[in-house]
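Appendix B. One record, verbatim.
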Amino acid sequence: MEFVNGRNRGDVVLFALSTCGWCKKTRELLDALGVAYRYLYVDLLPQDEIADVMKTVEKFNPKCSFPTLVINNSQCIVGFLESEIREVLS
């Protein structure tokens, strides 16, 4: 996972695809909000690691769609929901 430094708003993890426009917009929003977060481009992982990561994604997002934003290992925002992301992380 890559780490982006910023204000601590808890454990913020973004599961994304490198080619996904909505994933890119989510990262841009997190950057604009100035929060610290970790992100992982699932499609760029070695093939043998993808299944394990997808099990983690599935715990929070049974549809396994992207972007999947997990906050404090308890709250999940699926998709680019700007107002919800702002509300939770501002």
